[in-house]
Amino acid sequence: KQTGTILIRGNISQLLKTSIGERVMLPDYGTNLERFVFEPLDETTADQIRDHVLEVLAAYAPEVDVVKFGVFEASKVNYRGLSGFVVKLGLKIRDTGQTTDLEVKIG
Q: Is the C-alpha dihedral spanning 96, 6, 103, 46 positive or negative?
Protein backbone atom coordinates (compact mmCIF):
# COMPACT_ATOMS: atom_id res chain seq x y z
CA LYS A 1 0.00 0.00 0.00
CA GLN A 2 1.31 3.42 -0.96
CA THR A 3 1.53 6.19 1.61
CA GLY A 4 2.76 9.75 1.99
CA THR A 5 4.35 11.55 -0.92
CA ILE A 6 4.04 8.61 -3.33
CA LEU A 7 0.29 8.34 -2.68
CA ILE A 8 -0.27 12.08 -3.08
CA ARG A 9 1.73 12.17 -6.34
CA GLY A 10 -0.30 9.24 -7.69
CA ASN A 11 -3.60 10.81 -6.67
CA ILE A 12 -2.75 14.12 -8.34
CA SER A 13 -1.52 12.42 -11.50
CA GLN A 14 -4.75 10.44 -11.69
CA LEU A 15 -6.81 13.58 -11.03
CA LEU A 16 -5.15 15.51 -13.85
CA LYS A 17 -5.47 12.62 -16.34
CA THR A 18 -9.16 11.97 -15.55
CA SER A 19 -11.74 13.76 -17.71
CA ILE A 20 -14.63 15.50 -16.00
CA GLY A 21 -17.63 13.15 -16.15
CA GLU A 22 -15.48 10.03 -16.45
CA ARG A 23 -16.13 8.91 -12.85
CA VAL A 24 -19.81 8.06 -12.45
CA MET A 25 -20.02 8.60 -8.69
CA LEU A 26 -17.91 11.80 -8.85
CA PRO A 27 -19.06 13.53 -12.05
CA ASP A 28 -17.17 16.79 -11.28
CA TYR A 29 -13.88 14.99 -10.50
CA GLY A 30 -11.10 15.49 -13.03
CA THR A 31 -10.06 18.07 -15.58
CA ASN A 32 -10.80 19.27 -19.08
CA LEU A 33 -7.11 19.37 -20.01
CA GLU A 34 -7.59 17.22 -23.14
CA ARG A 35 -9.36 20.17 -24.81
CA PHE A 36 -6.08 22.10 -24.80
CA VAL A 37 -4.23 19.44 -26.82
CA PHE A 38 -5.45 20.99 -30.07
CA GLU A 39 -4.67 24.57 -29.05
CA PRO A 40 -1.40 26.37 -29.78
CA LEU A 41 0.68 26.33 -26.61
CA ASP A 42 1.04 30.08 -26.29
CA GLU A 43 0.94 32.28 -23.19
CA THR A 44 -2.86 32.52 -23.20
CA THR A 45 -3.33 28.75 -23.39
CA ALA A 46 -0.66 28.16 -20.74
CA ASP A 47 -2.45 30.61 -18.42
CA GLN A 48 -5.78 28.84 -19.00
CA ILE A 49 -4.16 25.45 -18.26
CA ARG A 50 -2.55 26.85 -15.09
CA ASP A 51 -5.82 28.38 -13.86
CA HIS A 52 -7.73 25.14 -14.53
CA VAL A 53 -5.12 22.95 -12.80
CA LEU A 54 -4.94 25.24 -9.75
CA GLU A 55 -8.74 25.30 -9.46
CA VAL A 56 -8.98 21.51 -9.64
CA LEU A 57 -6.14 20.99 -7.14
CA ALA A 58 -7.76 23.43 -4.69
CA ALA A 59 -10.98 21.39 -4.85
CA TYR A 60 -9.59 17.84 -4.86
CA ALA A 61 -6.06 18.05 -3.42
CA PRO A 62 -6.23 20.56 -0.56
CA GLU A 63 -3.36 18.75 1.17
CA VAL A 64 -0.82 20.38 -1.18
CA ASP A 65 0.31 23.85 -2.15
CA VAL A 66 1.63 24.44 -5.65
CA VAL A 67 4.98 26.21 -5.34
CA LYS A 68 6.08 25.83 -8.99
CA PHE A 69 4.06 25.48 -12.17
CA GLY A 70 5.03 25.03 -15.79
CA VAL A 71 3.45 23.75 -18.96
CA PHE A 72 5.59 22.59 -21.87
CA GLU A 73 5.05 21.04 -25.26
CA ALA A 74 5.59 17.28 -25.15
CA SER A 75 8.53 16.08 -27.20
CA LYS A 76 7.04 12.77 -28.35
CA VAL A 77 4.03 12.17 -30.57
CA ASN A 78 1.47 9.71 -29.20
CA TYR A 79 -0.50 7.02 -31.04
CA ARG A 80 -3.10 9.59 -32.15
CA GLY A 81 -0.46 11.73 -33.87
CA LEU A 82 -0.58 14.41 -31.18
CA SER A 83 2.33 15.65 -29.16
CA GLY A 84 0.25 17.04 -26.29
CA PHE A 85 1.84 18.87 -23.40
CA VAL A 86 3.41 18.26 -20.01
CA VAL A 87 2.29 19.90 -16.78
CA LYS A 88 5.19 20.22 -14.34
CA LEU A 89 4.33 20.91 -10.72
CA GLY A 90 6.36 21.65 -7.64
CA LEU A 91 4.25 20.64 -4.65
CA LYS A 92 4.55 21.24 -0.92
CA ILE A 93 2.66 18.83 1.31
CA ARG A 94 0.97 20.87 4.04
CA ASP A 95 1.11 18.28 6.84
CA THR A 96 4.80 17.45 6.54
CA GLY A 97 6.31 20.40 4.71
CA GLN A 98 7.91 17.98 2.23
CA THR A 99 8.31 19.11 -1.36
CA THR A 100 8.10 17.01 -4.47
CA ASP A 101 8.04 17.51 -8.22
CA LEU A 102 5.51 15.91 -10.52
CA GLU A 103 5.24 15.77 -14.32
CA VAL A 104 1.97 14.75 -15.98
CA LYS A 105 1.72 14.28 -19.76
CA ILE A 106 -1.60 15.20 -21.32
CA GLY A 107 -2.53 14.06 -24.81
A: negative
